[in-house]
Design goal:
This protein is 11% helix and 42% strand. A hairpin with a 5-residue loop joins strand 1 and strand 2. By secondary structure, it is mainly beta.
């Protein structure tokens, strides 16, 4: 009888935690795990692209979770380049949490290409309006190369924002590869 009472009480105490977890905010990023790919000579995750085709971007099976990730190979003949998500809708003046899994390694033991993850306001198109981007994380040449790292941050959208995209800046002058996977952006609790 006492055991049953203890287990029942414990179950009642844990129930609100289970219910809160089930109501987590949805991920707004299209194709966040890079699982959907567009057909072609070099398959690229659907909804992700290189701005100006400055970087060698393709899908890879070296994933953090699931079966695919976005691989960005940096050539030696460029200064830098951007990879970006598709534009998606957000609410103005709202706190959001962004989380990405990144694995980066330089060629020949060199430092990894520099990279930064930012969220840009958009107007249902490619170009951001005036204003600074929301800086989520910035790394400067640390060669981890062996383990996925989780980078995350929070930011509040401006009063006028309705659309955003996530961008990854890569220093293409430093040869190497950056893998991106499991990108999420959701309303922060």
């Amino acid at each position: 009888m006492t055991r049953h009472l203890i287990l029942s009480t414990l179950g009642l105490l844990l129930l609100p935690m289970v219910c809160l977890r089930a109501e987590e905010a949805p991920n707004l990023v299209p194709n966040p795990g890079m699982e959907e790919t567009a057909a072609g000579e070099k398959p690229v995750p659907t909804g992700w692209s290189s701005i100006g085709n400055l970087l060698d971007v393709q899908s890879t099976d070296e994933a953090h979770e699931g079966s695919q990730a976005l691989e960005i190979r940096t050539p030696r003949d460029r200064v830098n380049g951007w990879v970006r998500s598709q534009v998606f809708r957000v609410d103005p003046n709202t706190l959001y949490r962004v989380r990405v899994a990144i694995l980066a390694r330089g060629d020949d033991g060199r430092a990894v290409p520099f990279y930064g993850v930012r969220v840009y306001e958009s107007e249902e198109g490619w170009n951001p309006p005036d204003g600074e981007p929301y800086l989520i994380t910035w790394e400067t040449g640390v060669d981890n190369g062996r383990e996925w790292q989780i980078k995350e941050g929070t930011f509040r959208t401006r009063e006028s924002v309705k659309w955003v995209y996530i961008g990854l800046l890569v220093d293409a002058a430093t040869p190497g590869v950056v893998l991106l996977d499991d990108v999420s952006m959701s309303k922060a609790p």
